[in-house]
């Protein structure tokens, strides 16, 4: 995204939003909006995606409002929800067990309905009727990092992990009871190969043979939309045969580079405490690695390299694509370290940069500690991926809904 594109988006947005409304949604001052408009200061390139999302939402709120309903299971901070709202969906039920994620979710989406914590004991019959079920069911039991760690500790993983792995069957229980027109399940790429493919085989058999859904799946790398390698498996199912195909996905030819999500530190961005400080909104020094930590990481990486192991910190430049952001990022940030130039210690991403790295707009409110924010974004989904999948799912969901409504109408006329 260039400065000029951001300015074009801003001018388009000003035709639909007041300065006050834009300032609130972009989390900047009205004065800053005015200075961008008058070109007294550059409109920063990183706000272009947020403006694009606002314009898209404005169009679809007017044209596609409440075209279908969905429930948001294992919702996290609402990344999947954002994608399906942009396609005209309305959320009617949310479950999320983590208290901090609940706080972030409510801050960003409001409390139009109570959030259910533990979905396991919750009666499926009490869940509202809905057109689409969304579930980013916990991935730690199946992730490469999760399996390696649990093997080392002698702990169960996958379906053997009764606290998380079997939550898939609670999703299946709800699908069986409520029979939504469609579902979307999201998980880590390693789900395909876990337990020599047996775990995935059980999941697909359950969805296809036991529940009778037409199932599609694909691994999608988020790097087409954000400067991050993040491969996730998306499983989509429809209650009836449809013309849905993942081949309809529109992948950008070339994804953005890291500079597009970094704080510019040149005064074009308003200070956002505690992430940036001063007139130029410089990144707070607390995100810069101390000499001790930087020396430790270099020595640790050298030791593992000498032993033939793969450990190494992820030092990246502004024109690079980052590794996968994980929920462990709060520990030392070693997987994604920003190169600050020769003779300078690298730094971690700020939570706001992590939000951008996951495709969240700058209007997303971060109200928790850095530790919790890193965990939340590391456990989340890439929002533009969900938006694109929702875009190609929505027409088929709406078709099924209309067919169902016509069938009910005909039955009423014949009665």
Automatic annotation (TrEMBL):
Active site per database record: 139
An annotated GO BP: DNA restriction-modification system
Enzyme Commission number: 2.1.1.37
GO molecular function: DNA (cytosine-5-)-methyltransferase activity; DNA binding
UniProt domain HTH cro/C1-type: residue ranges: 7-45
UniProt xrefs under Pfam families: DNA_methylase (PF00145)
SUPFAM superfamilies noted in UniProt: lambda repressor-like DNA-binding domains (SSF47413), S-adenosyl-L-methionine-dependent methyltransferases (SSF53335)
Assigned protein family: Belongs to the class I-like SAM-binding methyltransferase superfamily. C5-methyltransferase family.
The name this protein goes by in its record: Cytosine-specific methyltransferase
């Amino acid at each position: 995204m260039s400065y000029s594109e951001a300015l074009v988006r801003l001018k388009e947005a000003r035709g639909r939003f007041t300065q006050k409304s834009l300032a609130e949604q972009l989390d900047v001052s009205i004065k800053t909006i005015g200075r961008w408009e008058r070109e007294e200061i550059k409109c920063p390139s990183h706000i272009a995606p947020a403006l694009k999302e606002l314009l898209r939402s404005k169009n679809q709120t007017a044209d596609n409002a409440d075209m279908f309903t969905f429930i948001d299971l294992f919702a996290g901070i609402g990344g999947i929800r954002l994608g399906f709202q942009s396609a005209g969906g309305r959320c009617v039920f949310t479950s999320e067990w983590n208290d901090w994620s609940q706080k972030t979710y409510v801050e960003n989406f409001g409390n139009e309905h109570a959030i259910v914590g533990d979905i396991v004991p919750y009666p499926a019959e009490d869940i509202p009727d809905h057109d689409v079920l969304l579930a980013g069911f916990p991935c730690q039991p199946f992730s490469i990092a999760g399996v390696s760690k649990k093997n080392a500790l002698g702990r169960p993983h996958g379906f053997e992990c009764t606290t998380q792995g079997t939550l898939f069957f609670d999703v299946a229980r709800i699908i069986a009871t409520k029979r939504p027109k469609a579902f979307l399940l999201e998980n880590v790429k390693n789900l395909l190969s876990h337990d020599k493919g047996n775990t995935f085989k059980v999941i697909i058999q359950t969805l296809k043979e036991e529940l009778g859904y037409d199932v599609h799946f694909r691994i999608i790398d988020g790097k087409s939309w954000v400067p991050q390698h993040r491969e996730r498996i998306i499983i989509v199912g429809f209650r009836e045969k449809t013309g849905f195909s993942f081949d309809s996905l529109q992948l950008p030819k070339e994804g953005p580079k890291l500079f597009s999500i970094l704080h510019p530190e040149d005064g074009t961005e308003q200070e956002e405490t505690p992430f940036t400080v001063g007139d130029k909104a410089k990144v707070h020094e607390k995100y810069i690695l101390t000499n001790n930590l930087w020396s430790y990481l270099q020595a640790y990486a050298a030791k593992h390299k000498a032993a033939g192991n793969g450990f190494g910190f992820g030092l990246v430049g502004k024109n690079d694509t980052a590794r996968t952001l994980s929920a462990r990022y709060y520990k030392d940030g070693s997987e994604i370290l920003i190169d600050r130039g020769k003779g300078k210690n690298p730094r971690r991403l700020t939570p706001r940069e992590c939000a951008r790295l996951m495709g969240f707009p700058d209007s997303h409110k971060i109200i928790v500690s850095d530790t919790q924010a890193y965990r939340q974004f590391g456990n989340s989904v890439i929002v533009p991926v969900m938006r694109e999948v929702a875009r190609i799912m929505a027409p088929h969901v709406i078709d099924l809904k209309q067919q169902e409504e016509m069938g009910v109408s005909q039955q009423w006329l014949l009665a």
